[in-house]
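Narrative summary of target 7.
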Amino acid sequence: MKAVIANPSAKGWVEIGEVPEPKPDSHEALVRVTAFSVNRGEVNRARSGVAGAQVGWDIAGVVERAAADGSGPKAGTRVVGMSLRQQGWAELVALPTVAIAPIPDAVSDVQASTLPVAGLTALYGLERCERLVGERVLITGATGGVGYYACQLATIMGAEPVALLRRADHKALIEATGARVIVSEDGAALADEPKFRSILDGVGGPLFGHLVNALDAGGRLISYGISGGLETSIQVRQLLLTGDGRIEGFHLYRESEKESAAKGLTRLQRLMVQGRLDGGVTLEKNWREIAAVTQAIIERTYFGKAVLTL
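Modeled conformation, tokenized:
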């Protein structure tokens, strides 16, 4: 069968190649993929990974063969899911039934495919924060998948989202989610803001030090990504001033052991059906154009979510 595989020397660091068809374990369903969304993390893995290795987390598709143990959706069911083996961008994928959920009739495969990594990270990251109702929540990387979902979900949860953007040309898009926008290239503008009870960060790097300074005493900073770099400088005095505030790392696979991806995806799709949540798809292409799409991600020439259809 055909699948997207890593090729660090190719355009966009990926290509479509031939791989063996998956052999599902008893607790896995065999899914024929109809759409998948692209995350920056997958592209970075393709660059640093082994040439020929399969790529991809987020998929939507149709169950071709139900799990042998009787769990999960039956054959013919449209589903959204997450490939824990990172083999999702393919014609067929074997997925644990705890990582897939049926797609409601009112939700398209394209919209559903944006949910697993971005939607669940935003949902579970915000739920790590305490006392959201009526509190200001700072969200970085708001033009990315996680940040865009987080702005919407924070509003739904009763919080007041504040999005930190590097570029003013994306301001209107994010304000449409209900978030207030601060434009600051390096985060220095946060010094003029009241402290934040909750911060959800996917940037890291030099910005992280400013975020620590912006954290209220007793607040919580959830770090789920490092798109801005691996290192930062922190004034230790600011850590002392946060009192019983906490800085926590977030890993989606670990978090989905507390609540299965299937349950989280069902919750998020319910909000989509109600018209309260949108995937922010700004780029939709046939999967044969995957290299051009991943190259656009590398060059940061688009914002929002990219979805490829088969």
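The chain has a mean pLDDT of 91.
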